Amino acid sequence: MNDRPANAFHRGQAREVLAAVPWFFHCQPETLEKFVAQGRIREFRRDETICRQGEHAHALGVILRGIVEVSSTAPSGKRHVLTHLSASEIFNLVPLLDSEPVVYDARAHEPSSILYVPEATFLAAVDQEAQLARELMHLLSFRSRALSGYISDEMLMPLPTRCARMLLVLIEYHGRPRGDGSFLIDLKLSQEEFAEMLGRSRQSVNQELQRLEDAGLIETAYSRFVVRDAAALKVIADKY
After folding, report:
1. What CATH number should be reported for the domain holding residue 194?
2. Do residues 164 and 230 lie in contact, with contact meaning Cβ atoms separated by under 8 Å?
């Protein structure tokens, strides 16, 4: 891992990414400049740990490039992947707001650069800019609703429905249309990692993925998913 002041990075690129963060759209330009000037850049290799559950966060993380995997691990070693965050997304928000430890593990899903905005700098901006505080409340509400929906799916939906829904979510956030009407999910995922996202065994998820592939709805190869028939997946997703 490399750690350096933000002014050693291409400052213009850092500003460009910060300007693309939806929750910062109404920030004063001076605020974003402080985030860049007082922040530090850290670069992580693929699979390198970014933070662990129980640690204390002292800065807001802003992803400049790459993808960050957010997960939880049980004492038994079983992992559950909660989400993947991409460039212009933020993390460590809750620990900074409630002064409690981090509640998840995060690692670089691919080589990633992260701008760390110091806690004092970030919280001062929240105190000074009411619109920023409102936007962050919207973000927390969005994530809370997403988590509630996930828990409901986990408790109520059969595996075929959950697989279909997860694939549709991946299309929404990481899908790249191809000329034949199919979608390449532009996120490298092994079938084991996909199973960890669903919180189910690799064997049961692989069997379901094979059924979808046999039906011509998806293709899997080299840790990539191609959705060939999103409409058919939606029918399965809406069945229950």
Report:
1. 1.10.10.10
2. no
How many other CB atoms are there within 10 angstroms of residue 11's CB atom?
A: 13
Same domain, 144 and 162: no
Among the candidates 124, 154, 184, a domain finishes at 154
Residues β-bridged to residue 185:
175, 225
Q: How many residues does the chain have?
A: 240
Number of domains forming the structure of the chain: 2
Q: For 174-214, how does the pLDDT look when each residue is reduced to its tens digit (9 = 90+)?
A: 999 998 989 999 999 988 899 988 888 889 999 999 999 99
| Residue at a domain's end among 154, 169, 193 | 154
- Tell me which residue of 163, 131, 145, 150 sits closest to 232, measured CA to CA: 163
Are residues 57 and 102 in contact, defined by beta-carbon separation less than 8 angstroms?
yes
Distances (CA, A) of 175 to 80, 163, 183, 237: 22, 16, 6, 17
56: left (phi over 0), alpha (psi -120 to 50) or beta: beta
Please tell me the distance from the alpha carbon of residue 59 to that of residue 225, in angstroms, as a whole number. 34
Q: Report pTM.
A: 0.83
Please give the DSSP secondary-structure letter assigned to residue 201: -
The residue range of the domain holding 140 is 2-154
